[in-house]
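Quick bug: Thioredoxin domain-containing protein output formatted oddly.
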Amino acid sequence: MNRPFAAVEPLRSQIDALPGPALIEFGAPWCGYCLAAQPLLEAALAAYPNLPHVKIEDGPGRRLGRSFQVKLWPTLIFIAQGQELARLVRPTTVDEIVQALRRFPGQV
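Here's what came back:
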């Protein structure tokens, strides 16, 4: 299921306080790279139905993306207890995403 990007970005402290593992996706609803990544994400995340997936619309004046040093979309950040475990920028295969998800051993 392709969910929309959150138009209102959460605070960095809210992201850092997420319990357990989570996938943070920065992008924009009109971004061609972001749109191309959605079927890849859906396929990779099918095996992880309980993993929180937070989609954040990024752009000029958006502080959260800058706090994560996001420069290109989509940027996928895999975090656990506020710590970045992996990062993918413009993934092109399901396998890339699955490999990053495997950085959550026994957590998802």
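Actually, after a second look the formatting is fine. The chain is about 30% helix and 25% strand. Closing.
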